[in-house]
C-alpha cells in the first residue's frame, strides 16, 4: 500500500480532496443539474498526461488526462481546480507527475512522419485531430514531415540529425516503419543509434501497434499515442535479408505462398481494409497456384511444446527483452543468398506448400495472431510452414481462420519452428509474390537471418501483448 497523497482544492466554491493512492488519482465532481450525488473520478497514473500549476489562470491546478470513454476508447479531458495553498499544491503536483511518468521521460520531442495517403488518406487528419492535442496536453513537441514518395522516410532517416529528438514517430501503417528501420540501419553510425520508434496506427496494416497494445487497443489512436508518451525504450531484433545483390532489413515478416499473394495482389484494394486479404487469399487458393520451393533453414527448435514452455518462461521473467545477450552487429553470420548453399547442418526441404511465413512479431494484423510465441529479442525467427500433402482447401481455410486465437499451432498440419535464418528459392515458376514487411519484394531467392537488438521501439509495458 502506497502513501495516500491528498491536496485540498476548491471546485465551484466547494472544497474537495485530490487523492493519489496506489497510482490512482481520484476526486469527486459535481454531476449535472438535478442529480444530487457527486461523481467519483478515478484516473490511473498511466493515463495522466500532465499536472501543473497554471499562474496565467489565477493559480489553478490543471490536470490533463486520457479518460476511458467506454471499454476501448479514451477521451482527452482537462480538469481545473483552485488550490487552497500554492506551496503545498506544487509539492503534490511534483509527486503526481513522478507517479505518472516513472521511468519515462516527460515532454519528449518527436520527429513525426505522416504518410498522407496512409489509412485511405486519413493519416494526416488522424494526427491533427487526435494525436496532436494529446501530444500538446503532455507538453510534447514535434517536427512533422509529410512523405511525398516511396522511400521518402527512409531517405530522411538515413541522413537526419537525431540528437534533437527523443523518438521517431510514424503516423501511418507498417510501411513507413519499414522505411524508417531501413533508413536508420543503412547509416554509417547504425550501430551507435538508440533512438526509439513509436507507432501511430493510421494505415491499412498496423501490426507493430497491435503487437504492443493487443488486438483491441492496438488500433486505438489515443492508446497508441499514450504508449509513445509513456513508453520506454525496448530493444527488438531485426531481420537482415539479401536478395540478388541487394540487402535490406525487416522488423516484421517475410512471406511466400497464398498469404503473400493475398496481401500483395490486392494492394489496389486497400479501401476494403482487412477483407482484401481474405479475398486475395481465397482467390489464390481456388486458383490452385503453385508454390514449389527449396527451403534451407538453421533450426533452433521444432518441438511446439518446448517452444511454448520457453515462451511462458520468458513472459514470467522480469524482462522479456533480455533473454539473449548477443552483441549488436550488422555482419551476416551466414553470408548472403549469393554464397554457396548454406552451412551443412541447415535443414533442407523441397516442398510444395500453401504457406511459408516467418515473423519477428506475434500479431501480423488485427485478429491475426499467427506467431503467438514470437519474442522481441530472442535472436530467433518464428517460421510456419503449411504443406500441401493432399490438404483440402477447406482445411486450409480452417487453419487460416484459427489464426484468430492462435489455435492453429496445435494442428498437425502446421509446422512451427524457431530458426536463426533460412533461404527460400521459388521453383518451377518465373513470376509470383514475395512479401517483406507487407511490401512487395522481387520474385527471386532470398536469404534471411536475425540481427539481435538492432532497433529500439517505445513500449509502455516492455513486451509484446499476449
From TrEMBL:
Swiss-Prot/TrEMBL GO biological process terms: sphingosine biosynthetic process
Keyword Metal-binding: no
Gene Ontology molecular function: any one: lipid kinase activity
Keywords: ATP-binding, Kinase, Nucleotide-binding, Transferase
Stretches that traverse the bilayer: none
Listed GO CC annotations: cytoplasm; membrane
Domain spans labelled DAGKc: 105-245
Protein name per its UniProtKB record: DAGKc domain-containing protein
Annotated source species: Rhizophagus clarus
Amino acid at each position: 500500500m502506497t502513501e495516500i497523497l491528498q491536496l485540498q482544492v476548491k471546485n465551484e466554491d466547494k472544497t474537495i480532496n485530490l487523492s493519489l493512492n496506489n497510482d490512482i488519482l481520484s476526486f469527486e465532481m459535481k454531476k449535472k443539474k438535478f442529480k444530487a450525488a457527486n461523481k467519483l473520478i478515478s484516473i490511473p497514473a498511466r493515463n495522466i498526461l500532465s499536472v501543473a500549476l497554471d499562474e496565467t489562470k489565477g493559480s489553478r491546478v490543471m490536470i490533463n488526462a486520457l479518460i476511458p470513454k467506454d471499454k476501448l476508447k479514451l477521451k482527452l479531458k482537462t480538469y481545473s481546480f483552485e488550490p487552497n495553498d500554492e506551496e503545498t499544491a506544487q509539492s503534490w503536483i511534483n509527486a503526481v507527475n513522478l507517479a505518472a511518468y516513472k521511468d519515462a521521460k516527460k515532454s519528449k520531442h518527436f520527429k513525426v512522419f505522416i504518410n498522407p495517403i496512409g489509412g485511405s488518406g486519413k493519416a494526416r487528419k488522424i494526427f491533427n485531430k487526435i494525436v496532436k492535442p494529446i501530444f500538446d496536453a503532455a507538453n510534447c513537441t514535434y517536427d512533422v514531415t509529410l512523405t511525398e514518395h516511396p522511400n521518402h522516410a527512409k531517405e530522411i532517416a538515413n541522413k537526419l540529425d537525431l540528437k534533437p529528438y527523443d523518438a521517431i514517430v510514424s503516423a501511418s501503417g507498417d510501411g513507413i516503419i519499414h522505411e524508417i528501420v531501413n533508413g536508420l540501419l543503412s547509416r554509417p553510425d547504425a550501430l551507435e543509434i538508440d533512438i526509439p520508434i513509436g507507432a501511430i496506427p493510421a494505415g491499412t496494416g498496423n501490426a507493430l501497434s497491435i503487437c504492443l497494445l493487443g488486438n483491441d487497443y492496438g488500433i486505438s489512436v489515443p492508446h497508441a499515442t499514450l504508449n509513445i508518451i509513456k513508453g520506454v525504450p525496448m530493444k527488438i531484433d531485426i531481420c537482415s535479408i539479401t536478395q540478388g545483390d541487394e540487402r535490406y532489413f525487416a522488423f516484421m515478416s517475410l512471406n511466400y505462398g497464398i498469404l503473400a499473394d493475398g496481401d500483395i495482389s490486392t494492394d489496389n484494394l486497400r479501401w476494403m481494409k482487412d477483407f482484401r486479404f481474405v479475398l486475395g487469399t481465397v482467390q489464390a487458393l481456388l486458383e490452385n497456384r503453385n508454390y514449389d520451393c527449396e527451403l534451407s533453414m538453421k533450426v533452433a527448435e521444432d518441438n511446439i511444446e518446448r517452444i511454448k514452455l520457453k515462451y511462458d518462461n520468458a513472459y514470467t521473467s522480469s524482462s522479456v527483452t533480455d533473454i539473449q545477450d548477443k552483441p549488436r552487429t550488422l555482419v551476416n553470420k551466414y553470408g548472403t543468398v549469393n554464397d554457396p548453399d548454406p552451412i551443412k547442418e541447415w535443414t533442407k526441404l523441397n516442398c510444395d506448400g500453401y504457406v511459408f511465413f516467418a515473423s519477428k512479431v506475434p500479431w501480423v494484423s488485427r485478429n491475426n495472431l499467427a506467431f503467438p510465441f514470437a519474442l522481441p529479442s530472442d535472436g530467433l525467427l518464428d517460421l510456419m510452414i503449411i504443406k500441401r500433402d493432399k490438404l483440402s482447401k477447406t482445411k486450409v481455410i480452417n487453419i487460416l481462420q484459427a489464426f484468430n486465437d492462435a489455435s492453429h499451432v496445435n494442428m498437425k498440419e502446421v509446422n512451427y519452428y524457431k530458426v536463426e535464418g533460412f533461404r527460400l528459392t521459388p521453383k518451377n515458376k518465373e513470376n509470383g509474390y514475395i512479401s517483406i514487411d507487407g511490401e512487395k519484394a522481387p520474385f527471386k531467392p532470398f536469404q534471411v537471418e536475425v540481427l539481435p537488438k538492432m532497433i529500439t521501439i517505445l513500449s509502455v509495458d516492455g513486451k509484446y501483448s499476449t
